[in-house]
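COURSE: Structural Biology Practicum
ASSIGNMENT: Worksheet 4, Part C
STUDENT ID: 0417
INSTRUCTIONS: Below are two proteins. For each, the amino acid sequence is given first, followed by its structure token string. Answer the questions at the end about the second protein only.

PROTEIN I
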Amino acid sequence: LFTGFQLLGAQIVASLPAPPAEMAPVWEEMRRHGRLRGAVVTGEWREAGDPAAYRALVVELLAGTGRAHPEAALGDGVRLDGSWVGARCAVGHESALDATVVIAGAEVGAGCRLARCVVAAGARVDDGCTLADALVLPSGISRLSPRNTINARSR
């Protein structure tokens, strides 16, 4: 039974069979050598292994409030509705973020409208950009869902 998370050392990772493969033989070998451990963790667990799931988790934890890290720079008139702005981020004046996560070091220009987006570290959203359901990477923009709309560029 595998319920979500495992931590493997470099030696074990190097010995893993090529995918697709079963983990049970790997775990059995570790068990035979006394190297398999487990921990019962209480509390809530949520998969956040892709950008859409990560955004949904952060927005849910914010419970409708907008927050910014103390090291974030927010311009005048910025509106954060159920959104998070990380450390060393900059959000330009009069921008509105709705259910959006801006990851440490990212920039959002002035007058932007972002809804249900993730702006990755090192990415920049140009002034006046409107995005919905988008993953903004330093290399460009990808969809978080089929409803993506884009009217300006990111760099």
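PROTEIN II
(use this one for the questions)
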Amino acid sequence: LSAAAPRTAADHTCRFHRRDKHRKMNSVGGSRMVTPTEIRLKRAEKALDIAFDDGSRFVLPAEYLRVESPSAEVQGHGPGQKVTVAGRRHVGILRVEPVGNYAVRIVFDDLHDTGIYGWDHLHRLGVEQEARWAAYLAELAAKGLSRDPPPRRGA
């Protein structure tokens, strides 16, 4: 795993190079695990632009990544415990930190930093983005919640 130097103050790019010559296999069904070839933090757009070794590329908004965080705070500790995270329309990403050769930790500007985003999870978020986002919006509406943060007291 190697990270390239930042290209600009607004964008930060990490390039990931495979050290082994053998393709890693997923333990579920024996399918090949995808790995990123590039992760670019697009600060102005509040998004991650991720290219994978299978040729796919996704631009994942910070708000989407935050509300789909793999952390226990969001996902809960068991089936059916996922929390609906509201009020994150304007959330940004402060930094992206490598975690071994298998994931990144995303630090958001609301100071959430406990989710470890594995390569398969990030790829799945890209593939399922449209359906997951629609389900999230429907869940917010059903619970009377909003993407907008609550108004500040005294404002």
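ANSWER KEY EXCERPT:
Q1: Confidence is low (pLDDT under 50) at residues 1-9, 15-30.
Q2: The longest strand covers residues 36-42.
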